[in-house]
Amino acid sequence: MSEPVVSEAATQNKFRRALKGVDLRQNGIFLALIALVVFFAVTTPNAASITPDNFSNLVVQNGYILVLAIGMVMVIIAGHIDLSVGSLAAFIGAVAGIFVVRPLEQEGWGWLPQMPWWLGIIAAIGVGALVGMWQGYWVAYIGIPAFIVTLAGMLLFRGMALMTLQNTNIGPFDTGFRAIGNGFLDRDNALGNAIGLPDLNATALVVTAVGILAFLYTQFSTRRGRIKYQQPVEPRTWFFVKLAALCAMMAYVGIQLSRANGIPFTLILLVILIVAYSIVMKSTTWGRHIYAIGGNLNAAILSGINVRKVNFWLFVNMGSLAALSGILITARMNSAVPKAGDGFELDAISSVFIGGAAVTGGVGTVVGSMIGGMIQGVLANGMNLLSVGIDKQMAIKGLILLFAVAFDVWSKKRK
Predict the structure, then answer these.
(1) What is the model's pTM?
(2) Which of 35, 266, 317, 382 is buried most, with the most CB atoms less than 10 Å from its CB?
(3) Side-chain half-sphere of 138: how many Cα atoms within 13 Å?
């Protein structure tokens, strides 16, 4: 009777050693994203989900949610939550409309001079940072739970958006402003025409190639660093297979975008934010403090971390990113509308949890939240192409979120 038990235990130990250093959760959600793309490619009419235009639309349509998810994952890692980001995005869109367009029929704003579009964007993000200070003060220094503060903010800023817009829309916006949400790098394909590639956006191909090379460099550098300091790394075979798959996917997406209008400015902005915030969370004192606070608050306090200061700036950062999201959706719609941002907070929170963040805090990554956001985006896009009703879409999204959190709870109990 003991031999099968010993054999099973030996098999399990061998399997664990083979997967030592492999982040099963992050790789699992990445595989889930690939599976969704393949599923909709097969099931949608004429493979509509993988056409060049649809790839381009996916990036532009989900950009503002992914920007919110970057800030939200940091808030959730620290053990908080922010329910106000959708309303704040709508309010900042209204503020940007007042700054940049300021139509004469908007009563009470005649004293404010019309700003250039770029200055209006900076000023609107500044207003978002001020809102973050307001909420951060109540959370960090007064001690009110973030759930209550941001729930109040969700109502407050939605009301302020309605008051600012006076129940009307503001638009249209300047061409430069609109380009943030709808523009493309070298849309006219000047480079492609110059070198004899009129059917492919050559700038998109160059950017894709540079991105792949930069990605490979960072992956190999990270692996060498972990080996140098005797930290666990992924098995070599798994590492190279994963790299090949990721590079192939990046190349495919880049080629598809080159067949459409090129690289969207929204994608460029997202890449910059993802790289910057990944560095912040992995390599800065502030990022390590955020993980420490979410992992064990009492230990963080005893170790001398200024928890109030970290939490305060956490919400300032979230306010700024919510403002940027509001500018992106306003630019895409070419209009500031009172209902903008409706439900954005739920999409951002879902992206973070689907992307592997822990409900209790202390666990999560920027890249994971981006994958979670893309899973939601691909799922919604595919269901729309298949003409799935909105009622069924909401039910499916709810189940996916539930199962993602259930998996987190189960994996913790298993450990």
Answers:
(1) 0.87
(2) 266
(3) 17
